[in-house]
Design brief:
By secondary structure, the protein is an alpha/beta fold. Among the domains are: 229 residues, Rossmann fold (3-Layer(aba) Sandwich), CATH 3.40.50; 167 residues, no CATH class; 47 residues, no CATH class. The chain is 43% helix and 12% strand. A six-stranded mixed β-sheet has the order 5-4-3-6-8-7, with helices on both faces. Strand 15 and strand 16 form a beta hairpin. Helix 1 crosses helix 2, helix 5 runs parallel beside helix 15 and helix 11 runs antiparallel to helix 12.
Amino acid sequence: MHANQLSLFEDSQPVRSIERGQECPAPSILGSLSESMLAIIARLREAYLDPSHQHPWIVATSFGKDSTLQCVLIWLMLQTIPPVSRMRKVVFLTSDTGLEHPIMQNYVKTSIDRIRQAAKEQGLSNVEAHLVLPELKERFGPKVIGAGVPMSTPKSPFRWCTDRWKIKPVNRFIQKYWENFGGVIVFLAVRSDESILRAKNIKKHKHDHDFIYQKAEIKKDTRSGREIRKMIPGKYECTPIVDVTDDELWDTLMLFAKFPWGGRFSELYALYKDSGECPMQVSGMGSSCGSNRNGCVICLFPKDDGMLAYFQQRGEAWADPILELRKRIKAINYDANYRLPIRKSRVRTLDQRDPFSIDQYSLFEQGTPIIQPLVQDSRPLYPDLALASFTLEARIFLLKNTLYFQQLAGVELVTEEDMTYIKKRWHEEFGWVENEEDLRPEPVEHFGALILNENYEVNLKESTIPNLVVCQTGKREEVERGIRHNPDPAKEIHPVFYVTIDQGCSERELYHDLMIIHNHTRRTIPVYWASIRKDEQGTTTFWNQLTFVVCHPGIFTNEQAISYVEWYLSHRDKEILDERPSQRIIDAKFLQRSSQQARLDLLMHPIPLSFLSQQIQDHTGITPDDLEMAHWIVGSRGSASWDRVSLPVATQRCEDNIELWINWFFNVIEGMDKEEAKTYLLKEGFHPDIVPGVIKKQVRLSDWDLLWGYKLAFYGERDTLMTLLVLPHYHDRLPLYLHQRLSDFIKKLSLSEGHYLERNDK
């Protein structure tokens, strides 16, 4: 042991404050610590007393074994420092997802309370302890049951749970401290000994050999493939126990019958008993070990949740109901019958042109747009189309089961505050009207999951519907002779039928109709559609074919499946009592703004006059003619994606109402300077035929500038620039702003994409 470490902590040599001569006796436990632990405390003390800055310390902790050791070492270090020198704030920070098992949840909350009380009693006025929660809309109830976002699993393309429930609340807290103090040092209880992957990640993010190092944002260069490290000003990290081994960790923790803030080692041990990391293995006193997971009780990442099974075997009353709830959540997570037809992020691509659907030169043609379909050559373009958010039926299923099983378990996964949000979200999205039946806690059984692959073929390995029969033609004899998957002689046959129907309307209209049908029926039938193109006598005709995947109790023949689809589609012609946006919400949106700002909003984002109360019309002075002109102008932009209108028709409407046409542009750009107006017109993609000459002259934009702004917005910047790469003879003719964008784009291209230019240069 180094002499300087001994002299720093020996009980016989109290630490003295040079400034005031106050004594600060070192804790007696220091004499029992190993050399490696004392070395860590020494480095922590040196860092704390660093006079070059006073950035607060944020000690991230989950109160598991690793973070407990880090907290212990920092606390002991603070006890060696005289009160007059404890100038730097130390904040112990933990998060509560609201989904941890009751024992862990209670342990964390109790530990935070103990730290606050112990700091007060021990004179550590610089110590704070905080427990942070996810934002209301991000919690389990509002996010999954309210907004219908499916839980993350190992095969999820978007794994959001940990980020929204744990990382974001902590980062939000840290960000506030960083803004208030101009800098912050975050202490992370990570160890290389935990796993090979953890060691690799630590090595990747920790640079140099500094004890405290500046945080870096690591990105990969698309051209070279090398990682670029960008330092973040004022944000620092420290991993003090990074080199501590498992043996050292448990040997140190077991020295404490009671932790410095009052928690007992026996409580921590109880969390890891029979866990695969249990300290009794280290000490040679036992070897019974199982699952080592301490986390959300409804997490869908483990195939078989050993944590819940362990608590179930231990006789915890809450474990059985929560285990059953988890099974039901997992059962519907990928069920195509419980998912809406299209992800919201895909809706904006409906009825959009694809510059490569015929050839790249279609980008420069002025003819009829080419539709970018959701399905091409009978194959869906996106592999997750069947996996949009949960249907209303699915969300009610989740709510009923969650409320029922949480009552049995004596826990609260969905709170009263969550319920208020859920009901509001259902009303806004589906026009749902509150009723006792949908909110009643009760166990709801699941028919079985219909799992589809990216081509809308039935995934027989993962589908759980009993006696599932996939039919090619749907004939009765085929159903009867078909191979039954998940055979169960006690249950009826469940055939799958594919029913295709022609629909003479746009993709956006189809989506709108399907959502109306869903709001009426509360259910959905998995569906995809193919855009059909037919050329006759110089005329191009488009229509769509819908293919429904039907598997429903009581449907045993193809004729019954067709009748079911026809019944389903018949609901699109019915009136929806609450299809219009809530008048109260619309009124509040516009009346809280000035009349000028509210009018401008309506001009830039027009909504039907029937949605506007007389009060709003009086407040804004908007007229039906104003709204109609706004509809044609806004709908003709290249960036328009919801209510796109015909460009030739829009041009004609503008020329027929010149005063309204010019006034719209003057009203919109009135508060902008010349550069702002220019940027707005180019970014939104206003076609040169739609922009009045007086406006072009005022902001100094040519037709050529506007035409390319329209193309960029219409096709998307990446597709446009990719097309230009194979047309080098166009480059000299491009507007200056587009030429610069193309140059920047070429620089960012990976080497694999760069061969287009090399090939054309030859």
